[in-house]
Amino acid sequence: MDKLLLIIKREYLAKVRNKSFIVLTILSPILIVGMIALVVFLTQVNSDEKNLIAVLDESPFFANQFISGPEVSYIDLKNISLQEAKDSVASMGLYGLLHIPDESSIDEVSSEITFYSKKSPSMGVLGVLESKIQKRIREEKLEELGVSANQISNIGSSFQLRTSTYSGHTSLKGINEIKAAIGGGFGYLIMMFIIIYGAFVMRSVIEEKTSRIIEVIISSVKPFQLMLGKIIGTSLAGITQFIIWIISAGFLSVLVFYFMGIKVDLFSNGPNLDENTVRAIKEASESSETIQLYVNELMTFPWVTLFISFLLYFTLGYLIYSSIYAAIGAAVDNETDTQQFMFPVIMPLMLAIYVGFFSVFENPNGPIAVAFSLIPLTSPIVMLMRLPSGIGGDGVPWWQLITSVVLLILTFFLIVSFAAKIYRVGILMYGKKPTYKEIFKWLRYK
Amino acid sequence: MSNLLVAEHVSKSFGDHTALDDVSIEIPKGTIFGLLGPNGAGKTTLIRIINQITYPDTGAVYFDGKPLMPEHIRNIGYLPEERGLYKSMKVGEQAMYLAQLKGLSKAEAKAALTYWFDRLDIGDWWNKKVQELSKGMAQKIQFVVTVLHKPNLLIFDEPFSGFDPINANLIKDEILHLRENGATVIFSTHRMESVEELCDHIALINRSKKILDGNLADIKRNYKNNTFEVGLLTSDKDGLQKELAQRFQTETAHFKSLEDEVKLRIKLPEGQHSNDLLQYLSSRATVSHFVEVIPSANEIFIEKVGKN
Question: Are A3 and B101 inside 8 Å of each other by CB?
Fold first, then answer.
């Protein structure tokens, strides 16, 4: 036990004192926050640039329709021919020219409306123009049917479907998406952690082999102790790195956003949303009552269960995979030889993530979701994606959760003992490029 | 004399390959035991079994009379042939780590390290990283780490590789000093001159079988065959050589000398003694050189392994 602690301590310190590890720990948040800030900054610069559009309106229908907005400004051209208008717009370097010809009916007019520009116009600009023209055509036609302008503005009200559960609680839209996002986040976190730090474990094993210290150490401690200590030490270093990343990235982004004066609502106001939607979102987010409902809904999440099962699945899943990584490291002499063994390790992880995103979010209790949340190598990811919808009732049935955990624990013992055998034989084999057949033989050595 | 380590009928195979086949050895306390054999003979496997890195398929190993147990690890110091250190770790820190893995407390490890670093005059390496050291320097650290916890049994696999002659001598003296202080040493090497110099007992392993073992002097006594190397001063060299060739089994010998003399190896038949030969020779010429030929460990090695 003392020896295990010694090994854990050494592996941890060796990892966190490693220069490239320190550089990565410090630089990653700076790079990521810097990149996001750059993207935000460029978007801001881009949207600050207003598109100037000339409007040559020869018809009687579109007077006072083109009022300059946040993205597009309009310049009215009067009493010039289309050709003259094109020439002057091109020479003035405007974004484009909207030509509305004079015809007798609005149908004929609308079929002839043309937008001229040097390059292909952006979807954003076209969307704004199209919605204005569409709205005008609709109004004109309604007027033809005898509806007054006043009446028209009256029917232009927005509508949102009220939703409720049978018991009378207002049920919330998007809550399933939030649940999926939380589950997906957990699953993704596990996958990233396994891939990054599993490879660390593998490299550390290879280092011990190439530096030839392994036989000195193995004469003092059991190979299994060394493997376990290595895995635990490396993952503690990984958790340290993750915590530093989260704290420093959070701190940095607050700092950057404060200094750049970027308002967060810039993100919610996408340029192409039509006004009704924008208004609806604003109403929804500004009404404290709705926020309260979301908060209440989030409070009813099985947070404790979710957290406990996250720890359980994370620990077991990580231990299973990193012991496989350790065995691979022990079997080879250098990192280039690891490739043939890597694909079978990564594959179940990728599969789990894909199954999660394409099937579990749609139908958390469907047959595919159930199957993959029981299969041990994918269950740590897939089950965590299912769990936010709760346990028992309409959530994950208890028997599935228990079966999944039991299967995972059995697999854990099986794989770790296999990996330990391969590790024990492999670390003392030099200069051999192992095949699957060879490694299978090692399992039978005493 | 009691034995510190006894291996009884130890066999070990890896798949189809037999690494050790019914090998038994006895290592007396306080001796230096040479474990000899060509590459791939099974020496390293035997050493790994003694270190409990691997386990025998059949047979048993006893340490100081008791079956070999994990707690005996503390009493064994092992310097493997394939040896190294963590490159990016500092010397002192690393030595502390390895000492504590052997079961020393922090204070014990520190005290033992200070003693050895002073003794080998390497105290100022404490804060250096291993990658800054030369190969010979790293070997010294490895030696210190092996003997640090005062083990009863020391196992050295090719201990002198990588050392210059001065440091090799230093290490050799340390090994002898350790034996004087009661340690038992297993010494595995290909360098027969150091076997000659150091070993009290040897075992020779070839193709996974033990083919020879025992006290080195006894073995040599068994292998000498009444042959003598002589140098004779005479005016009639050819005549003397012919005469001797008729009486004895002779062959030309090679050794360095100041005079231009007849140099021969003479094998005496059973029952004749060196004195008889010397008497005869001194009546024929002036004897300037007379030595009994004792086979070297090297010759015995080559003869035994070559025959197989």
Answer: yes
User: Cβ contacts (< 8 Å) between B97 and chain A: which residues?
Assistant: 6, 10
Closest to B87 (Cα-Cα) out of B52, B53, B130, B127: B130
Segment holding B75, helix H or strand E: none
* Chain segment A243-252, per-residue pLDDT in tens: 888 888 888 8
> For position A113, what pLDDT does the model report?
87
Give residues with Cβ within 8 angstroms of A181, minimum separation 6: none
Q: Give pLDDT tens digits for B232-283.
A: 888 888 888 888 888 888 888 888 887 778 888 888 888 888 888 888 888 8
Asked if B80 has any chain A CB less than 8 Å from its own CB, the reply is yes
pLDDT in tens, A201-212: 999 999 888 888
Please state, in angstroms and rounded to a whole number, the distance separating the CA atoms of residues A190 and A182.
13
Q: Is B80 close to A219, i.e. CB distance below 8 A?
A: yes
A211 to B84: CB separation less than 8 angstroms, yes or no: yes
Distance from CA of B237 to the nearest CA of A (A): 58
CB nearest A216 (choices: B55, B70, B83) = B83
For residue B272, what pLDDT is reported? Answer: 84
Domain regions of chain A by residue span: 2-37+172-442, 49-154
State residue A212's pLDDT score.
85
> Is the model's pLDDT at B72 over the cut of 50?
yes
Q: In whole angstroms, what is the distance from residue B24 CA to residue A406 CA?
A: 48
3-state SS, A33-102, equals HHHHHHHHHHHHHHHHCCEEEEEEECCCCCCCCCCCCCCEEEEEECCCCHHHHHHHHHHHCCCEEEEECC
Contact A6 B142 (CB under 8 A): no
- Dist CA A371 CA A400 (whole Å): 10
CATH number of A49-154: 3.40.190.10
Calculate mean pLDDT across residues A128-133: 85
Strand, helix or coil for residue B192: helix
